[in-house]
Amino acid sequence: MPDTTPPDADARRAVAPVICYPPETLDPPDLALYARARAGAHKLSDSVAAPREAATFHVKAAQFFRITSVEGPQVGDLNLWAADDLNERFFSGKTRALHGTHVSTGDRLWSSIPYLRPMATVVEDTLGWYGIDEFGGAVHDVIGTRCDPYTHMLLNHDDYHHCCHSNLTRALAAETGMAPQEAELFVHDVLNVFMCTGFSRDTGQYFMKASPVRPGDYIEFFAEIDLLGAISACPGGDCSTTHSSDQAQCHPLLVEVFAPPAGALQGWRPAPRNGYSRSHGL
Prior knowledge:
Layout: H1 9-13, H2 31-39, E1 42-49, E2 54-59, E3 64-69, E4 76-82, E5 85-89, H3 92-99, E6 108-110, E7 118-125, E8 138-141, H4 149-156, H5 164-176, H6 180-183, E9 191-199, E10 206-209, E11 218-223, E12 227-233, E13 253-259
Antiparallel strand pairs: 1-13, 2-12, 3-11, 3-13, 4-5, 4-9, 4-12, 6-7, 7-11, 8-9, 9-10
């Protein structure tokens, strides 16, 4: 192959980057208000995702939900839907565009087009100390899709039914009464809770490494709208070696829902759906 490197290659590479979607014009979450409301909150419910399985949970707008690693290091794949319309679901791509490849306190999880509004806000993260490591890895990513049986078939040539995609499908089907093949169409790209990931510097490939999560670590969210959620305890365990198999040691994940006292969020309103006219210039 001929060398196509132009004489100004170094100059082209040296062009400074520009942030695509600077978030400064977004309305910031009132974390102080949320913290005051959380201080007096009481627990309403809890759900446990068993190892290599998923569990669903419901959260009303203005309630809090906490995902905790219990018993041992474990990552989870989180799906969120608007409780009254499963077509409105978590949009990992736009969340990534607005907040970066990994989320932590103060970042929001955004819903799909045409709704495009905050679904939940991260209010606490016990792994916020991790930052970005020397490999470019960080925690709670919105870059991975979810382990799924279709990619497993491509790479391993056999059926595996405990991929997070299948776990979430079974959980949503059980929650809604839909057939699995119908429920599967609502399963979407995830927030990889507690997962430590990045892109390799030399090849740009998506990598995972042992999660720094330990029993008792948690990430907590404030629900900006009424939500149905599902969390899968990934078959990769802490994702230090493999996933989509029964080889990794896995542990449960706990989801707790908390309600603030009456009047604690005076003046707060659920996030409205996006105001775009949907006329598309026609």
